[in-house]
Design brief:
By secondary structure, the protein is mostly beta strands. The chain has four helices and twelve strands, in the order βββββαβββαβββαβα. The strands form two sheets. Strands 1-2-5-4-3-6 form a six-stranded antiparallel β-barrel. Strands 10-9-12-7-8-11 form a six-stranded antiparallel beta sheet. Strand 3 and strand 4 form a beta hairpin. The protein is globular, with a radius of gyration of 17 Å.
């Protein structure tokens, strides 16, 4: 379980394809605090540490993950938003994030707004999935590349988010431009509410 508060935008230092799996090796500042089997969100995707040394650690993404997320497009030098699993003895600063990416979206517009940025994202709309809670609502929560954000101006297949300078600098949002593919996870609470409402009908 995660909160969507990114700890670090770290660099990919190696990629190794093994059959349909992709081994992703990262360099980050907290490698010495990690352990094998630990869960870390990578652009919002929960992956398990399978190997580590003094300066790097490695996780493995299976084909299903590569098909549903933007991890298959990573290159050496790509920046990835990292978050370790949530501690249960502190404040929940973002929102409840599972690390189970629902689908990808494409950035269609980036606007500078006198000290902040407004990003517009579009995703494939599926009426049945929307009925089950896979949608955004105004002032609701959404996770973009693992970052917990507040939704603005949602439509059936798009939404906007406003990014402050700190988030722009300390996550990979500063690399997102028109055409960039991102991972999105819809709000789990909205999914449960939709499920309960559909059962009552």
């Amino acid at each position: 379980m995660f909160s969507g508060i990114v700890e670090e935008a770290a660099q990919v230092v190696a990629l190794e394809k093994e059959q349909e799996n992709l081994h992703i090796t990262m360099a980050c500042s907290f490698v010495n605090e990690l352990s094998i089997d630990q869960s870390i969100a990578h652009n919002g995707v929960c992956l398990t540490v399978v190997r580590k040394d003094e300066n790097t650690y490695t996780v493995t993404a299976i084909q299903e993950t590569l098909d549903r997320t933007n991890l298959g497009a990573l290159k050496i030098g790509s920046k990835v938003n990292l978050e370790r699993s949530m501690l249960m003895n502190g404040r929940l600063d973002g929102h409840i994030v599972q690390g189970h990416v629902d689908q990808t979206a494409v950035c269609t517009r980036v606007e500078e707004e006198d000290g902040s940025w407004r990003y517009t994202f579009e995703y494939k709309y599926d009426p049945e999935m929307a009925r089950r809670g896979y949608l955004t609502v105004d002032k609701g929560s959404v996770t973009v590349n693992g970052v917990s954000l507040t939704v603005c101006n949602p439509t059936d297949n798009s939404f906007q988010v406003a990014i402050i300078p700190y988030t722009h600098e300390h996550t990979n949002f500063h690399q997102i431009e028109e055409g960039t593919l991102v991972n999105i996870e819809f709000d789990i609470i909205g999914k449960y509410i939709s499920r309960m409402m559909n059962h009552e009908q």
